[in-house]
Design a protein that fits this description.
Length: about 190
């Protein structure tokens, strides 16, 4: 069985500022890592795009900062949602048509503005990011979606703990790569 996870990365505010903004929500918040804080929200784990977008809009609007939400579905589909100033400005889908049984042919990833993502999060080569985003998901030369997510995070300079970790993983006792549970703030 593949991984299912979601998270939101916000550039700029502190861990405590983000945790305070999430009071009343069940979530985990990382300390600032490479200038970013990662939120693992319980409601977002349902993989409802509206819930993910509402939180991304709220965080980006409140802090006037870029937010990148990640959604991994069964290790087959990576979706990214880029927010700024309270608005969803871009969506990326690594495998459009995945949920459409009538879709024809090999899916080509859609969305994902490499220049905008690099400008917001610090990537230095939009053409290189564009190559990562555009590889067809089931091509033999393409990375799997987990590896694609890792490469995107690395290229943008956002914390590696966005890859493979969501709220449900933090609630379990499973070991976590690159994340110390004791450094997290748990909101409720």
């Amino acid at each position: 069985m593949g991984q299912f996870y979601t998270n939101h990365t916000i550039k700029g505010p502190s861990q405590q500022e983000v945790a305070d903004a999430l009071l009343g929500r069940s979530a985990y918040v990382t300390p600032s890592l490479d200038g970013c804080v990662v939120v693992y929200d319980e409601l977002s784990e349902e993989q409802d795009a509206e819930v993910i977008s509402d939180l991304g809009c709220m965080l980006s609007g409140q802090f006037h900062a870029p937010v990148l939400a990640s959604l991994m579905h069964d290790d087959d589909v990576l979706m990214l949602f880029h927010f700024h100033e309270g608005e969803l400005i871009d969506e990326y889908d690594s495998c459009p048509g995945y949920f459409d049984p009538d879709a024809d042919g090999d899916p080509i990833p859609i969305g994902g503005d490499a220049s905008s993502l690099c400008a917001a999060f610090g990537g230095d080569s939009p053409p290189q990011l564009e190559q990562i985003l555009r590889k067809p998901p089931f091509d033999e030369d393409s990375p799997d979606q987990h590896e694609r997510h890792s490469r995107i995070a690395s290229h943008l300079g956002i914390p590696s703990c966005v890859v493979g970790i969501g709220f449900s993983y933090l609630e379990s006792d499973d070991p976590l790569d690159g994340l110390d549970r004791t450094s997290l703030i748990r909101t409720a």
